[in-house]
């Protein structure tokens, strides 16, 4: 097997007993380059759909809402704004995600991100490795693979994870690629622009639930809030029926903002006992609710259980921003009135995230039970 594989990501991580361990997993991009016609055993799942039904397209469901950020702005037409807020509330309750339209991020900012990401993944493996540090911990910073436990099948993915905020908080790891030379400024520019949109959406999401506008945004801070950037690369896969790009999960974030390119059709959410391919036009931004916002909203919004599938002939990239309050923040679930039953308790963000990485990956939305009353 090793001969066939050729290149490996070497990851070190701290296991549940606090022991530092290293593991070696194949570089998926290098495997795909060999044009394999079979799937190596490491990636095989007996039934990717498992006991959870088969995948379907979403024809029978309400459409994923397309939300125009310009309409949510205070000062926009009040009738249109109320309509957009109602659409947001309904759509998020139905899907846990929505398409983000009219966000105001210039297309050249998005294009620059696509270019540097493709530039990085286009480098030979040794140059990619030399350009960044490796995985040092389980919270997905660095160039490498998706974290899975030892006895689990591997995901058909190579990833690159960085922390963009707070500034300078990269855990001492040299993980921003040095090549292409404009990688970091291009991604940071996007993060800066995206952050404005995320802040607007946090307020709109509170209003959509008829809560005070600051209900969610009060926990965020212009300096201390965290933004992790994760770049997912899914090369073409010889057996999409036997492998997954990312194992099912919900995000540990408050909000997750995604862009995708090269192809669409990879994101699925679990709905009505089936995996549904999210109808997500290729070059639109998409926002999904994370566990922390589910907790802040006392369960009114729910973080979707989602996964990524692979495709036989198409490669796909996604660039994902995870937006969180500072890890020292204590979030207190908002009650919508005296009769509102308390579902979640007050938790510390850092404790939540730490526990999330300890229990994940799991086969169900187990991490969030940490915050249940
Ligand atoms: O690639 C996608 O569409 C999903 C990525 C994702 O779920 C993640 O990185 O957490
Ligand atoms: Fe995710």
Automatic annotation (TrEMBL):
The protein's name: Non-hem dioxygenase N-terminal domain
Q: Which PANTHER family match?
A: OXOGLUTARATE/IRON-DEPENDENT DIOXYGENASE
- Keywords attached to this entry: Coiled coil, Dioxygenase, Iron, Metal-binding, Oxidoreductase
Q: Which organism is it from?
A: Dillenia turbinata
Cite the Gene3D superfamilies for this sequence.
B-lactam Antibiotic, Isopenicillin N Synthase, Chain (2.60.120.330)
Span-the-membrane segments of this chain are: none
Family statement: Belongs to the iron/ascorbate-dependent oxidoreductase family.
Q: Which residues form a coiled coil?
A: 187-214
Q: Which Pfam families match?
A: 2OG-FeII_Oxy (PF03171), DIOX_N (PF14226)
């Amino acid at each position: 097997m090793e001969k066939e594989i050729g290149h490996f990501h070497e990851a070190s991580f701290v296991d549940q007993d606090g022991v530092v361990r290293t593991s070696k997993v194949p570089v998926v991009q290098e495997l795909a380059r060999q044009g394999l016609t079979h799937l190596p055993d490491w990636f095989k799942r007996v039934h990717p759909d498992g006991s959870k039904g088969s995948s379907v397209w979403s024809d029978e469901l309400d459409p994923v809402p397309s939300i125009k950020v310009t309409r949510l702005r205070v000062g926009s037409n009040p009738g249109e704004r109320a309509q957009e807020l109602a659409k947001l509330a309904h759509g998020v309750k139905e899907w846990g995600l929505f398409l983000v339209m009219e966000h105001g991020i210039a297309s050249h900012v998005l294009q620059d991100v696509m270019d540097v990401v493709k530039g990085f993944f286009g480098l030979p493996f040794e140059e990619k490795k030399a350009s960044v540090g490796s995985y040092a911990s389980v919270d997905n910073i660095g160039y490498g693979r998706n974290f899975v436990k030892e006895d689990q099948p591997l995901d058909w993915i190579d990833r690159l994870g960085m922390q963009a905020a707070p500034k300078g908080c990269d855990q001492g790891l040299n993980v921003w690629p040095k090549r292409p030379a404009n990688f970091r400024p291009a991604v940071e520019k996007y993060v800066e622009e995206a952050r404005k949109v995320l802040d607007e959406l946090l307020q709109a999401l509170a209003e959509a639930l008829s809560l005070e506008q600051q209900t969610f945004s009060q926990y965020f801070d212009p300096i201390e809030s965290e933004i992790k950037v994760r770049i997912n690369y899914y090369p073409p896969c010889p057996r999409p029926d036997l492998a997954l790009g990312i194992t099912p999960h919900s995000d540990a974030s408050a909000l997750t903002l995604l862009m995708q390119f090269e192809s669409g059709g990879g994101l699925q959410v679990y709905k009505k006992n089936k995996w549904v391919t999210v109808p997500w036009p290729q070059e639109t931004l998409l926002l999904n609710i994370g566990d922390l916002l589910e907790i802040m909203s006392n369960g009114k919004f729910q973080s979707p259980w989602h996964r990524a599938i692979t495709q036989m002939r198409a490669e796909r990239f996604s660039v994902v921003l995870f937006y969180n309050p500072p890890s020292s923040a204590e979030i207190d679930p908002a009650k919508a009135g005296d009769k509102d039953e308390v579902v979640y308790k007050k938790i510390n963000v850092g404790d939540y995230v730490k526990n999330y990485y300890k229990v994940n990956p799991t086969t169900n939305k187990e991490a969030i039970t940490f915050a249940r009353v």
